[in-house]
Amino acid sequence: LQKWLRTFQSLKTTSEQSHNPDCLLAVTALSLRVTCASISLNCSFGPEIAYDAYIPDFEALHLVGRLHAGGPSPKSLRPTFITSSILIRSLYFIALKCRRWGVRVKALRILESMPRREGIWDAVLFVRLRGWWL
After folding, report:
1. pLDDT score, position 5
2. Closest CA to 110 of 71, 77, 76, 64
3. Which residues of 9-26 are buried (b: 16+ CB within 10 A; e: fewer)?
4. 3-state helix, strand, coil in the chain (%, to 5)
5. Distance from CA of residue 114 to its chain's centroid?
6. Is residue 10 predicted with pLDDT exceeding 80?
7. pLDDT at position 90 over 80
8. CB burial class (10 A; 0-12, 13-18, 19+) of residue 32?
9. How far apart are CA 22 and CA 71, in angstroms?
């Protein structure tokens, strides 16, 4: 995993320097998913408060905002490939596991603003479920 992360960091740096909006979108989405997976893996055998150590990572919602606001370039000649369910699943994970209220609300607001589905993940449904749970 560490070797993959080093390689991915190199790809991320190269993508950011390319200024290609489609490439940036894909790298941002993958970066978001990697962060959520890493947090989940590191906290999987601990108590729920173990997630508190990752509040700075949860607060990095600017990645989500950039991903949501940017979207694929309308001038793209090639289709943009993003693994399905990255954005909704990651936002839901943040809203579910982060214990800082403001971060949860930001994640839910982004989900609310994008009434769409990604595979089996439905943004509007998860906002309603999470709102009920809160």
Report:
1. 82
2. 64
3. eeebeebeeeeebbbbbb
4. 70, 5, 25
5. 14
6. yes
7. yes
8. buried
9. 8
Q: What is the 3-state secondary structure (H, E, C) of 99-125?
A: CCHHHHHHHHHHHHCCCCEECCEEHHH
Question: Per-residue pLDDT tens for 46-69?
Answer: 999 999 999 999 988 656 665 654
* Secondary structure of 17-39 in HEC code, one letter for each residue: HHCCHHHHHHHHHHHHHHHHHHH
Q: What angle do CA 15, 81, 87 make, to 5 degrees?
A: 90
Structure-token pair, residue 89: 């699943």
| Residue 102 near residue 134, CB atoms below 8 Å | no
- How many angstroms separate the CA atoms of 46 and 85, rounded? 26
